[in-house]
Amino acid sequence: MLFVLVNGKEKSNARVLEYFNLKSSDLPRVSIYDSDSDKKWLMAAGEITTERVRNFCDSFLDGELQ
Length: 66
What we know:
Structural class: alpha+beta
Oligomer: single chain
Order of helices and strands: HEEH
CATH topology: Glutaredoxin
Number of domains: 1
Radius of gyration: 12 Å
InterPro entries: Thioredoxin-like_sf
Pfam families: Thioredoxin_6
Number of helices: 2
CATH architecture: 3-Layer(aba) Sandwich
């Protein structure tokens, strides 16, 4: 799993936000993109904590994300 931080205020990153259907006002958010299936998931909005990110990643790895 690769983690990437994208600065949503940079105009050059606008396409990344567009791809995930996000606006800069939606940030910060955590998302997962699976290149094998070309699918993407957004973690529910809220506080970004180690526990929430770990649970989100574990759910992805266990095939539980819809």
